[in-house]
Structure to design on (737 residues):
């Protein structure tokens, strides 16, 4: 049957069982929005395209399905880019559709024209410019397949407006075969055998699990391996939730703000089993001093480029984490590493994750209480910076896909739209964005999207009046030159004042409580530690989109900290 | 150890593929010494011959990253294979009555061709491997090279004997 490009678009999305599309229309996608209007496809109008991309991302991370967003040409497309780069760094399956100027205008600097495929080439897994309506169905099919298979990632499909209007026979390709793309899921059995031997003969093994474990659904296998072979397990920011936090073998997060004992375990391990992790610099610290005792590094990853990129692997296994761990479990012997676990426990006792438990309202306390009150069963998203690290340290997510954070790109403004996306994926779950007062303002406009669509997420703002993580670095490494981090600073402030709360200090802008009210959401402000639990109890059960601003200690630091470029054991555990 | 490697990349013959490869090399900081692209016996497939410089580790990443691109069908490293390599250069060299016969002699020895003759210059076309082209360039340089264009290296594996 003959259909227009826009009709084909709608048919394809139905075939792909797309539940929700996040986006904003514009001149060169009106034909598609016209068909969306006529179809039953659910489209959520966001207030900024970056928000749309992060919502699709949050939806994908929380559900494991492909997230979908749509924008117009030019500025619509460029606004998507931060979201695409975020998804690309964290291997999130998205399909982004963009309108493009008509094919005869491409390259002519037409109104709202941008070279979208050119701009997004380095930040997508793949992208397409559809020049012929007859190719549209196949391209959309391939886009979803590429996004979700292998190491997942965002794929962009750029559709010129005349292609949306042109007609072609609609043929849905049932089978898909891309001759140049065949991800390898099954690990090489000889390699797996070698890995099992190394694990069986190890004295001080550590499992280092990354986001790949979540994407392949390998949590159960991961926990089994750790239990049977008695291997302590540390996770990256991307893998929080992949391992039950109350297990004695759980070491928490490693790396720059990881636990002392996880980092010490890495530095003293003889065999490291990396699963779906990429040895990112925030995890390894100084590469030349990384894991000096490890004679064998086993690296299981579906992406060959991740293997031996930063740390050279002794036993590389290219394959899907779940399948490879499944094979590995057949070969791994039951073992006990009592002394090793005891040694790690010693490090745990020496430098536990603590904060000053005084009468002051400290951000860690807020996160800890959220963790306790929800039992780690809520989906938590984070913004980026101190709030993110405190969330990672003190929110004990119990399940995979319950901790969503922009890890690789470190995108401020990610958490709130991601929370909205996660709520669409899990309408019955409690979804909480742990935010800083800086980051939350980067996509605050999506309050309108959330209010109008009855998306009741909770926004917890840890307001320290600073761009806190930068301030922390300035305090620790730049002689306390608090350059451009005080969020009170205005034109009338004395030039050398960079601390909030001094005499004549302008008040905080905006008033988050009033802001929430202006959008029709609920707003709370908490200044005292004793009010934290009662307010949280109320808010977590109020069934309303709510902002709670916790006015916390401004100069609280995230500790422990392995400074950039230092080895994992050169850790700062407290500041004088 | 830093070395030159010749990599042959079979790619889908679609627009934008060259840009993808170029973007990859730029983004990852890999150095390209030369790059030649053309159709293969199959018009849907192009062959890119890329000469890249780097140590083993870099080469491994280059190959893996190329393979990761969706439009790349196959990557072959020619470093350890018996290959035929060719590069073609067009060299415009200064020439007057006195030097003409000397230059012609050099051209003869290298089995190169003269493809353009003007009052004060000649264009020499020479085909060969890197060494041969460097050798003729060294001999022609004293006469004054006015311009040069090179195709970049192309290569194929030798057939089984």
């Amino acid at each position: 049957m003959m259909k227009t490009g826009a009709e084909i678009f709608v048919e394809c999305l139905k075939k792909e069982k797309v539940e929700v599309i996040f986006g904003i229309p514009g001149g060169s996608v009106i034909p598609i929005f016209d068909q969306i209007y006529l179809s039953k496809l659910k489209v959520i109008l966001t207030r900024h395209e970056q928000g749309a991309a992060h919502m699709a991302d949050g939806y994908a991370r929380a559900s494991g399905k492909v997230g979908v967003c749509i924008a117009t040409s030019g500025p619509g497309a460029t606004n998507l880019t931060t979201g695409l780069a975020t998804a690309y760094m964290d291997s999130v399956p998205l399909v982004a559709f963009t309108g493009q100027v008509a094919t005869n205008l491409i390259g002519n600097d037409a109104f709202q024209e941008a070279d979208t495929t050119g701009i997004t080439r380095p930040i997508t897994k793949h992208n397409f410019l559809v020049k012929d309506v007859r190719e549209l169905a196949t391209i959309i099919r391939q886009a979803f397949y590429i996004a979700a298979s292998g190491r997942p990632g965002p794929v962009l499909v750029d559709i010129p407006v005349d292609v949306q209007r042109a007609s072609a026979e609609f043929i849905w390709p049932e089978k898909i075969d891309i001759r140049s793309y065949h991800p390898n899921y099954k690990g090489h059995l000889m390699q797996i055998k070698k890995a099992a031997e190394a694990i069986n003969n190890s004295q001080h093994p550590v499992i280092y699990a990354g986001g790949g474990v979540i994407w392949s659904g390998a949590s159960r296998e991961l926990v089994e391996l750790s239990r049977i072979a008695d291997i302590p397990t540390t996770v990256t920011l991307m893998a929080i939730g992949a391992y039950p936090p109350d297990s004695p073998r759980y070491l928490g997060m490693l790396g720059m703000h990881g636990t002392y004992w996880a980092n010490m375990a890495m530095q003293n391990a003889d065999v490291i089993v990396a699963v779906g992790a990429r040895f990112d610099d925030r995890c390894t610290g100084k590469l030349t001093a990384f894991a000096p005792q490890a004679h064998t590094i086993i690296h299981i990853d579906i992406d060959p480029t991740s293997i031996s990129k930063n740390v050279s692997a002794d036993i590389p296994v290219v394959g899907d984490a779940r399948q490879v761990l499944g094979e590995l479990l057949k070969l791994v012997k039951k073992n006990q590493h009592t002394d090793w676990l005891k040694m790690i426990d010693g490090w745990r006792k020496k430098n536990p994750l603590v904060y000053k438990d005084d009468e002051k309202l400290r951000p860690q306390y807020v996160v800890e209480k959220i963790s306790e009150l929800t039992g780690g069963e809520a989906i938590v998203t984070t913004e980026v910076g101190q709030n993110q690290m405190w969330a990672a340290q003190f929110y004990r997510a119990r399940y995979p896909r319950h901790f969503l954070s922009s890890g690789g790109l470190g995108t401020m403004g990610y958490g709130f739209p991601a929370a909205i996306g996660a709520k669409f994926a899990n309408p019955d779950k409690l979804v909480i964005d742990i935010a800083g007062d800086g980051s939350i303002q980067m996509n605050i406009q999506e309050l309108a999207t959330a209010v109008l669509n009855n998306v009741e997420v909770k926004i917890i703002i840890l307001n320290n009046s600073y761009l806190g993580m930068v301030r922390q670095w300035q305090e620790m490494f730049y002689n306390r030159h608090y350059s451009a981090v005080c969020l009170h600073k205005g034109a009338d402030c004395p030039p050398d004042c960079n601390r909030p709360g001094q005499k004549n200090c302008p008040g905080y802008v905006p008033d988050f409580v009033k802001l929430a009210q202006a959008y029709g959401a609920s707003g709370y402000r908490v200044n005292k530690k004793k009010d934290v639990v009662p307010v949280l109890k109320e808010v977590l059960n109020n069934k309303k989109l709510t902002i709670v601003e916790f006015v916390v200690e401004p100069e609280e630091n995230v500790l422990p900290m392995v400074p950039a470029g230092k080895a994992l054991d050169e850790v700062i555990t407290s500041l004088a | 150890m830093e070395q030159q490697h010749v990599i042959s990349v079979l790619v889908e013959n679609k627009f934008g593929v060259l840009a993808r490869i170029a973007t990859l090399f730029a983004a990852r900081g890999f150095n390209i010494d030369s790059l030649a692209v053309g159709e293969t016996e199959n018009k849907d497939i192009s062959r890119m011959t890329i000469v890249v410089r780097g140590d083993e580790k870099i080469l491994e990443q280059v190959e893996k990253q190329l393979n990761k691109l969706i439009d790349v069908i196959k990557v072959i490293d020619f470093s350890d294979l018996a290959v035929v390599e060719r590069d073609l250069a067009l060299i415009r060299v200064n020439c007057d009555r006195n030097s003409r016969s000397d230059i012609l002699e050099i051209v003869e020895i290298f089995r190169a061709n003269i493809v353009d003759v003007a009052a004060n210059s000649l264009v020499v076309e020479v085909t060969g491997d890197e060494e041969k082209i460097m050798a003729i360039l060294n001999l022609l340089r004293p006469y004054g090279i006015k311009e040069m264009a090179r195709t970049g290296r192309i290569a194929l594996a030798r057939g089984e004997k």
Notes: The first helix of chain B runs from residue 17 to 28. The beta strands of chain B are 3-12, 31-39, 45-54, 72-77, 83-94, 113-117, 121-128, 145-150, 154-157. Residues 84-157 of chain B form a domain with the Alpha-Beta Plaits fold (CATH 3.30.70.1150).
